[in-house]
Write a structure and sequence with these properties.
This protein is of the alpha/beta class and 296 residues long. The protein has helices at 101-107, 142-151, 195-202, 220-233, 254-259, 263-274, 280-293, and strands at residues 3-15, 18-24, 40-44, 58-59, 64-65, 75-79, 82-84, 89-95, 114-118, 132-138, 157-164, 179-185, 212-219, 241-247. The strands form three sheets. It has a seven-stranded antiparallel beta sheet with strand order 6-3-9-1-2-8-7. Helix 2 links the parallel strand 10 (132-138) and strand 11. Bound molecules: flavin-adenine dinucleotide.
Length: 296
């Protein structure tokens, strides 16, 4: 695990609801892309109002830690939209929303601002026999969808469904000869997300799923029923789909609400992950059902 220091090279608005920040410099040239379309990094932001006072954590065997006596840098997860080994740049596309360290930082970003990031990881992993893929996301997953599409071989028929707040948030996607793109408006914290309905409509119960891969990302609670639909209704093997919660409504009070649960309930939920299993998707379904019932 490496932690890199980079600086903002350029900032440019993409749409009414997204800003592209290009990072360069520092030790970024050492950054090695996995090449996976949805690869993401943890970004480490300045801890206070001084945008140049960045207290980076140090790598450990299992992740990272803040050196003793130093302030903790707020961390958020973002997709690498593009990597240019020459001249050593990466692009990150930030959703503009009203609250949040990351969104606020991006909205005010200026060339020269420092930021930290770790090494990237990707989750998109279609089996070799895939001939059809379905990509469904809200705004937060749009950068990953665009990069996945850019890297998709021509023979893979690709259905793209994107939920963005409004027409002004739509953006041009990389061309692909066998892609069909649908934009829907809503969700993204502005109104209830329709991600679950969009996936179940694209893949109804009687679907022929031979050679199909589904990747979906966006509002976490909206995607819980999607995992269930894919696994329990369609009986899809976990190698055939990836459901990734990208953001949590009310995340600023989530830890407080979690800690307010009786200790026995928290212990019971944590124990779910410790039991031996050969199917993490099923454990996730049980865990997420419990969280939903507890209002989390
Ligand atoms: C693997 C992965 C890749 C991601 N890639 C991207 C990406 O490329 N671009 C991107 O913009 N986001 C991406 N995200 C989502 C991003 O990490 C979250 O949106 C994050 O919470 C934003 O941090 P923040 O500091 O702005 O807001 P936070 O401090 O985390 O949250 C503050 C408040 O804002 C709300 N909030 C957070 N995000 C949103 C949102 N998108 N819309 C509306 N309300 C929100 C929260 O519910 C909370 O109430 C990704 C997440 C993951 C897990």
């Amino acid at each position: 695990m490496e932690i890199y220091r980079a600086v903002v090279a350029r900032v440019r608005p993409l749409t009414a609801s997204m800003i592209r920040v290009t990072l360069t410099g520092g030790d970024l040239p050492a950054f090695t892309s996995t090449g996976v379309g949805d690869e993401y990094v943890r970004l480490f932001f300045p801890h206070g109002p001084d945008r140049h006072d960045l207290s980076l954590p140090v790598p450990t065997e299992s992740g990272w830690e803040t050196p003793e006596g130093r302030p903790t840098a707020p961390m958020r997860t973002y997709t690498i939209r593009a990597v240019r080994p020459e001249p050593g740049e990466i692009d990150i596309d930030f959703v503009v929303h009203e609250h949040g360290v990351a969104a606020g930082w991006a909205a005010a970003a200026q060339p020269g601002d420092p930021i930290g990031l770790n090494a990237p990881t990707g989750l998109y992993d279609p089996p070799e026999d895939v001939v059809r893929q379905i990509l469904v996301a809200d705004l937060t997953g749009l950068p990953a969808v665009a990069r996945i599409l850019e890297n998709t071989p021509e023979h893979i028929a690709t259905r793209v469904i994107l939920e963005v707040p409004d027409k002004a948030s739509e953006q041009a996607l990389p061309a692909h000869p066998r892609a069909r793109v649908t934009w829907t408006h809503g969700g993204n914290g502005h109104s209830p997300s329709r991600l679950a309905e969009l996936v179940t409509t694209a893949l109804p119960g009687e679907s022929d799923l031979t050679g199909t891969y589904l990747w979906t990302a966006g509002e976490t609670t909206a995607l819980r029923s999607v995992r269930k639909h894919l696994r329990r209704t369609l009986g899809l093997d976990s190698s055939r789909f990836k459901v990734v919660g990208y953001w949590v409504p009310g995340s600023d009070t989530w830890t407080e609400r979690w800690e307010a649960l009786p200790a026995t309930v928290r212990a019971e939920l944590e124990a779910l992950w410790e039991a031996p299993t050969d199917d993490l998707e099923d454990v996730t379904i049980v865990y997420e059902d419990r969280l939903s019932n507890l209002g989390l």
